[in-house]
Amino acid sequence: MNNYFILIAIFAVTACQSKQQEALSEASMPQRMAAMKAPAPEQDDSSTDEELTPELPAPTGQPAATTNRKIIRNAQVRIRVSDFNTSGKAIEKAITQSGGQIANSNETKSDNSIENALTVRVPAARLDAFLTLVLKESIFTDTKTITAEDVTRRYVDTEARIRSKKAVEETYLKLLKQARTVEDVLKVEEQLGQIREEREVQEAELRQLKDEVALSTVNLTYYQQTEVALRPEEPIYAQIWHNFTDGFRLMGDVLVGLFYFLPLGLVGFGVGWFILRWRKQRRKAVK
């Protein structure tokens, strides 16, 4: 009789869990938006409503829809600087002042420029101030892009699902205490392990959202053009003359390179002459 009761309880909890998840995904956000637009009506203090509905902040001078928004703000900036080293130090100082940190750095050099590509994480509240300090080092701004993604709905839904999982987990723990046989214990623990695994995945997703909301990612590239890049373009006759002189220079380099192989040529010629002479003497001896 006890086994029959536990099996019925497990099926009931599983069915309630699936219904709660479907209801949360469809109805949680409209309820919150309605609560943000109008004063909240009086509600009873039942434990079920508190578990399934996230707590809303008390009304303040500004609407709750503005204060509780979860926005992910990122930026992409590419600037040209006059002095690579001086601007690099200034940018590092701006990162420190903004409470940020460098997640990645990639410095490259070419014939025309030297540049450094940074991935910077700064507090979202200080993103605008940080960009202002960075742009002070710019003599020309190639790119400045700021993106904002509203993840409020994902944030609220994930929190609600976690609370629902915790409530179901507590129910399974109570069933586990009532189990009397090994078979009942194994069935309850199997369901309990699945619930915990799903809850941990959702908690990891929520932590990721919190990190992305709290810290903005800035892909910052600053570079300095070299003297070759800044040199004005030469007229066509000057380019022809430079190519003509480069051709003679190349021929000279080839002739110089041949002298590197001259000792090897002399050694090879001597060895070949010695072998031919030895073969002639051998043929005469055979005859």
TrEMBL record:
DUF4349 domain ranges (all copies): 69-276
Coiled coil: 185-212
Sorted UniProt keywords: Coiled coil, Membrane, Transmembrane, Transmembrane helix
Spans traversing the lipid bilayer: 254-276
Superkingdom of the organism of origin: Bacteria
Disordered: region residues: 24-67
Protein name, entry field: DUF4349 domain-containing protein
